Amino acid sequence: MEDATTLDFAFQPHASPVPADVRAGLLANPGFGKTITDHMVVINYAEGRGWHDARVVPYGPLSISPACAVLHYAQEIFEGLKAYRLPDGGAALFRPEANARRFNESADRMAMPRIPEALFLAALHQMVRADGAWIPEIEGGSLYLRPFMFASENFLGVKPASEFLFIVIASPAGSYFKDADSVTLWVSEHYTRAAPGGTGAAKCGGNYASSLIAQAEAIREGCHQVVFLDAAERKWVEELGGMNVMFAFDDGSIQTPPLGGTILPGITRDSLLTLARDAGFTVREEPYSIDQWQADAASGRLREAFACGTAAVVTPIGKVRGRGFEFSIGNQGPGLVAQKFKDQLVAIQRGRAPDPHGWLHRLS
């Protein structure tokens, strides 16, 4: 079996990359996930051989069989992280080793092979080295990296696959919730995201596929995002369709739903909890019911609520709606706590502030 930690990457440059002037136009207003850069990283896995054939190639379509296992059994996982431009012109990733660990934890849950952390990080380095010119220079701009892996073996029997593809693609990114000072959430009445023993803690496509109908309902109701309650009692707040949620109270405490297998362990979530403890906040990872949320918002005990994630960073929650109820939080806009955490986190990510926890991973 090949030593995956020492794989050399072959490089095939794109014969017709996006012209610099066209790229500049795209980067002026990149949106989120709309444009894909010129290259991608691809690495193969086969049982008995391990990881092999690491390469950087022009971005383009994949050729797979209609019997490809991922199309039938959804054996697929992914990650999301960003490359940031530093003040000196260099580039850095934020806590990529945490993404590598979560990727492998997702792989374990989905009966997929682990990828060595060093190889995962090397793939990210290769991706940014190839397409670093795609990092937007606009305020808040970044290069969103999407590592993913799927079962590529061709068979129709129900079993874990023995062949996989690991791929990294990239997309220039601006604001996720553009032109929104705060977001409005819809409380799903009929749908849940995950159940105990399920795949809620894994970053797999099936979790997101099952949430789309609830997200579509939220949009129809005039909301930005859906918020899910637990599957057992339909009472406890868990997370949004694509990000975690936090609450700031009048006593200087911060609360967020606890991890327990049904909530994705967000890296932004973990970073904010660390920053909150550093700043002297009392931090609780405890259950919080939708009824208590409404009561605390009405009494003023709850000062702020905010969503957090790689894409959204820190986004204030202004209103919450559900079937037959609606309530507002604070001033329905950015609060002091959310803004403090966002400013501090972004400053670290972009190399403009001290990095006491060693989170920033500078790229050569």
UniProtKB/TrEMBL annotation:
Database matches in Gene3D superfamilies: 3.30.470.10, D-amino Acid Aminotransferase, subunit A, domain 2
Keyword vocabulary terms for this entry: Amino-acid biosynthesis, Aminotransferase, Branched-chain amino acid biosynthesis, Pyridoxal phosphate, Transferase
Record SUPFAM superfamilies: D-aminoacid aminotransferase-like PLP-dependent enzymes (SSF56752)
Pathways per UniProt: Amino-acid biosynthesis; L-valine biosynthesis; L-valine from pyruvate: step 4/4; Amino-acid biosynthesis; L-isoleucine biosynthesis; L-isoleucine from 2-oxobutanoate: step 4/4; Amino-acid biosynthesis; L-leucine biosynthesis; L-leucine from 3-methyl-2-oxobutanoate: step 4/4
Reactions the enzyme catalyzes: L-isoleucine + 2-oxoglutarate = (S)-3-methyl-2-oxopentanoate + L-glutamate; L-valine + 2-oxoglutarate = 3-methyl-2-oxobutanoate + L-glutamate; L-leucine + 2-oxoglutarate = 4-methyl-2-oxopentanoate + L-glutamate
One GO MF term attached to the UniProt entry: branched-chain-amino-acid transaminase activity
Enzyme class: transferase
Coiled coil stretches, renumbered: none
EC nos: 2.6.1.42
Purpose: Acts on leucine, isoleucine and valine.
Record's protein name: Probable branched-chain-amino-acid aminotransferase
